[in-house]
Amino acid sequence: METKHAKYERLLERCKMLAPTPTAVAHPCDESSLRGAIEAADLGLLTPILVGPRAKIQAVAKQSGVDISRYELVDSPHSQAAADAAVRLVREGKAEMLMKGSLHTDELMGAVVARDTGLRTARRISHCFVMDVPTLEQAIIITDAAVNIFPTLEDKVHIVQNAIDLAHALGKPQPKVAILSAMETVNPKVQSTIDAAALCKMADRGQITGGVLDGPLALDNAINLNAAKIKKIESPVAGRADILIVPDLEAGNMLAKSLSFLADADAAGIVLGARVPIILTSRADSVMTRLASCAVAALVANARRDSASRTVGQAA
To answer: Closest by alpha carbon to 48, among 76, 68, 64, 66?
Structure first.
C-alpha cells in the first residue's frame, strides 16, 4: 500500500510547474486560517491577498510567528465586509481564487451568490471533496456533501458536470462517474434511481460531456470490482469509479465523514460553479489537507486559464 498522503503529494508535485495563483483570503483572523494561507504561499500554490481587520490579522500573525510582510493586506472592518471585499477583488480581476478564512461558510457563500455583486455563472454552485482514501488506488471525488441539500435533477446535471470538469483539471481526461443510490436497478419508488437513469441518458445525448456515467449503482459495486462481478453488473464504471455522485447532502456528508473517521481518509474541499474556484477549509483539517485543497483549486484555476486562452485563440 502506498504511503498516506501519496495521492495529495502527487497533486502538490503537479503544482510545482504552475505560477502562484492570486488568491483573496477572506477574514484570516485565527492562526489556522492565516497559517494555512501562508503555508500554501510558501509552497508556491498561491499569492494571498489577506482581507479583513488589519489590526486583528497583524496581531494573529505576530502571536503565531507568521510573517505576512510580503503580502497585500486589504483592511475590512468585520467578517461580512471581508467576504464582500474578497469577492470584489475577484470581480475586479485581482484574484483568481477565493479562500475561506475564519468566518462562517454562510457569510462567504452569501457574498459569492449575491445576485448583482457576486460570482454566479450559468452553472449551479456545488461542492466537491477530493478524498485520499488509503485503501483506494486513486483519489476519489465525492459530490455534493456541503452546498446543495436536496438537489433536483436539474441541479444534479450541474453537479455532475462540475465534478467532471474538476477531474479533467486533476488529469483525468475521461473520468468514470457513478450515480449512487441504495440499489442498482431503477425503482419508481426511489427517486434517486430515476435521477440516475435520467442523468445517464442525458450523457448519452450530449447534455453532460467529458465523462462516462453509469447508475444507479450502490456504493459497494461503484468502488469494488469484485462486488460488481458478484452482482453481475457489466459496466465500464462499476468497481472503477473516479467520481461518486450522492443523492443529497446528508448522504454525501455521511459518506465523506465515514471515510475520514473510519477509513483514515483525508478530504480536500473545493466549491465549483462560480467564476473562480473557492477553497473551503476547516479548522479541523490537517496541514496536508489544507495544502491539498489549495493545490486542487490551483489546478482548476490553471485549467480555466488554459481554456480561456484556447477560446481567445480560436476567436482570433
So the answer is: 68
